[in-house]
């Protein structure tokens, strides 16, 4: 039997569906105002639009992509909300620079206390996924809020987030330079790993109940990121998805994980747990060694790409990609 699994409950902020379409925003050029006056910025998003009337001075972020983009632009953050248990060691991912933001742990935006959020006195909330328009209205009563910008998506691309941050803070040139640099690193990865080009990958989580949750759609952030590296989601996995972006398969169906490269996340913490799955030692990637094990502290580098996590992910995948037979 198969059933869709709610990976949002498993990995909190690690969500599905990445849009490559740039979100509609308007802002002044970096050098457009000689007198330093802030011109309002309008950010279009899935629940309408948000107007930012003044230069944000007290910013709260609810997702790692916004956090990393602001840090890359040298913009201070008052507080950053991080997902309980999935935010890296000491609530900071390895790729995220040290910062002075207050850290508030939560598990899903529905758990955010409006009075607690209001006590931070933010003038801008960079939220990302909020789940519903009602949730957006609840959070935005505190301050102007930016949810997911792309229509019909639950996560914006790291490029869109970084470029939008540049527009909001009047640092468009710097934001574009940051994006260009990371995209150049992605291009270099493809050149440096020719054997991986066009080869298949699968991303699987092993639950403590012994089932395997797999990415099963090209729109998933993991798929988008791996595609940018030149690899393709294994067609066998997509065949069983029936329109789901991620599904649970039984432990007996490891034949669906016979990909050229495997990215595996043992939710119990022990990579050796995969070895108990029937036929595991005969899987293509297991035999070649083209396997990457991730954990609660670094899986978001793939599932929630940011301006800082993408280079980290390239390094994470690189060693396994080198083991793919030509």
What characteristics describe this protein?
326 residues; alpha/beta; five-stranded parallel β-sheet; 17 strands; 20% strand; disordered N terminus
Topology:
Layout: E1 3-4, H1 7-11, E2 18-19, E3 25-26, E4 41-45, E5 48-52, E6 59-61, H2 64-72, E7 79-83, E8 102-106, H3 114-119, E9 124-128, H4 133-140, E10 145-147, E11 155-156, H5 158-168, H6 172-192, E12 200-206, E13 212-215, H7 221-228, E14 232-233, H8 235-239, E15 246-249, E16 261-266, H9 284-288, E17 291-293, H10 300-303, H11 309-321
Quote the distance from N terminus to C terminus: 36 Å
Secondary structure tally, helices: 11
Low-confidence stretches: 1-35
How many strand segments?
17
Instruction: Provide the structure class.
Output: alpha/beta
Cα-atom radius of gyration: 20 Å
Please, what is the oligomeric state?
single chain
Q: What average pLDDT do the residues reach?
A: 89
Strand/helix succession:
EHEEEEEHEEHEHEEHHEEHEHEEHEHH
Shape: globular
Largest sheet: 7 strands, mixed
Helix amount = 25-40%
Written overview of the protein:
By secondary structure, the chain is an alpha/beta fold. It has eleven helices and 17 strands. It has helices at residues 7-11, 64-72, 114-119, 133-140, 158-168, 172-192, 221-228, 235-239, 284-288, 300-303, 309-321; strands spanning 3-4, 18-19, 25-26, 41-45, 48-52, 59-61, 79-83, 102-106, 124-128, 145-147, 155-156, 200-206, 212-215, 232-233, 246-249, 261-266, 291-293. The strands form four sheets. Strands 1, 12, 13, 14, 15, 16 and 17 form a seven-stranded mixed sheet that branches. The two termini are 36 Å apart. Residues 1-35 have low confidence and may be disordered.
